[in-house]
Amino acid sequence: MDTNELISHSRARFDHHQARIVLREKYQAKMTFAHAGGMWRAGPELLILLQACPTEDAVILDLYDTPVRINIVDLQYLTHSRWQEQMNAWLVEYEELHKNR
Amino acid sequence: MTQGVLLFAFNNEQIDYLAMAAWSARNIRRHLNLPTCVVTNVVDMPVTYQFDQVVTVDLPPTEQTRYFKDYKGVGAWHNKNRSDAYELSPWDHTLVLDVDFVVASNQLKQLFDIDQDFLAHRWAYDVSGHLAFQDNNWFGTYKMPMSWATVMCFRRSKNAQLIFDTMQMIRDNWLHYRQLYQVSEHTFRNDYALSIAMNIVDGHTLNTPSIPWQLASVTPETKLTQIDPDTYKIQYESTDSKTKWMLLKQDFHAMGKRALGEIVANSC
């Protein structure tokens, strides 16, 4: 057995700060989804934009700055589902972080 | 439209890339449910390696070597036919993955839903938080933005074909492009060729579409071990010189081939 490796292993501490950053990156990626030929990122910004549209149909820019004609209700439903689904998964993993020494 | 994942595997004296590809193919099937095709020069393949298709080619002609930090030694680097992916892929919509890219989720499935001819990562980050890694997102004296060839998704189109043709042109005239972009490194890298090619095809606008999330990277200095099939532990020296660890339950680029090689060997 390599004693130095054993000492290094026992002294290692869980990196809470960095784990939170990596978790954020992971869930930012999971917020993206495709709909109506466009690519979207679920989150408050998109939901607020959709709420600001007065009509049921609208043309808005997707993640690639491509104008896409969408049905507001459909996209709102998908955005909200994706956002909360991933936020819940994020919360579960976030709470697991605290259990690590 | 047919879809699949293309892997390139050319072993050298130290690294069994084909074993990594076979391990990766199992992860791809499990998470992405997509067929895999390996491009290799190995003719007699172990029966346990389960690829849906195998394309056997000659070893790419190269005199190129590379220093592998984790092996603390120089080895041959057969990376010069990645730009043949367009001709070699059996599918209409192809995901090209480095064999050291660890698929631990279905995240990459999203790429097939994006209405773009060609996509690669523009940004990579070091999961251990070392900010010096950010320098890898540019190259050359003039800080050319890097497009990472680790994950490339393309569909059969004029645009994608032009990008691969341009990569071949850059590869064949690497000395010229190296001088033009003032790249100090002698070694040809597909990341450089891809970055230059995408920018040329896009009319030098530096506005090429990219994968809408960052490439998580584990550097060779980081100790990597597998906890369960989709959970990995990394141990590293943090910026304040303390030994830290954390768990990864996501896709990532394992830049240290030795650690990944040990994981692959232990999983067989």
Detailed description of the structure:
The complex is a heterodimer of chains A (101) and B (268). Chain A has 101 residues and is an alpha+beta fold. Chain A contains four helices and five strands, in the order H-E-H-E-E-H-E-E-H. Chain A has helices at residues 3-11, 16-30, 44-52, 72-97, and strands spanning 13-14, 32-35, 38-41, 57-61, 67-71. In chain A, helix 2 packs antiparallel against helix 4 (72-97) and helix 3 (44-52) runs antiparallel to helix 4. The mean pLDDT of chain A is 92. Chain B is α/β, with parallel strands linked by helices and 268 residues long. Helices cover 24% and strands 28% of the residues of chain B. Chain B contains six helices and 17 strands. Chain B has helices at 17-32, 85-88, 158-172, 174-180, 190-201, 257-267; strands spanning 3-9, 36-40, 53-56, 65-68, 73-76, 93-97, 101-102, 118-121, 124-126, 138-139, 144-145, 148-155, 215-218, 223-228, 231-237, 243-248, 252-254. In chain B, strands 3-2-1-6-12-8 form a six-stranded mixed sheet, with helices on both faces. A four-stranded mixed sheet of chain B has the order 7-17-13-9. In chain B, helix 1 (17-32) crosses helix 6. The model of chain B has no long low-confidence stretch (mean pLDDT 92). The chains are: A alpha+beta (101), B alpha/beta (268). The interface between A and B is medium-sized, with 29 and 26 residues. Strand 1 (13-14) of chain A pairs parallel with strand 16 of chain B, so a sheet runs across the interface.
**Helix-strand sequence of chain B:** EHEEEEHEEEEEEEHHHEEEEEH
Strand ordering within the main sheet of chain A: 2-3
Instruction: Tell me the Rg of chain A in angstroms.
Output: 20 Å
Q: What oligomeric state is this? A: heterodimer
DSSP strand (E) fraction of chain B? 25-35%
Number of helices of chain B: 6
The major beta sheet of chain A can be summarized as: 2 strands, antiparallel
The structure class of chain B reads alpha/beta
Radius of gyration of chain B: 18 Å
How large a portion of the residues of chain A is in β-strands, by DSSP E?
15-25%
Helix content of chain B: 10-25%
Global shape of chain A: elongated
Number of helices of chain A: 4
Strands of chain B, total number:
17
Largest sheet of chain B: 6 strands, mixed
Instruction: Kindly report the greatest chain-chain contact and the residue count on each side.
Output: A-B, 29 and 26 residues
Walk across the major sheet of chain B and give the strand order: 3-2-1-6-12-8
Could you name the ranges of chain B where pLDDT drops below 50 across 5 or more consecutive residues? Answer: none
Helix proportion of chain A = 55-70%
What's the rounded overall pLDDT mean of chain A? 92
SSE string of chain A, helices as H and strands as E: HEHEEHEEH
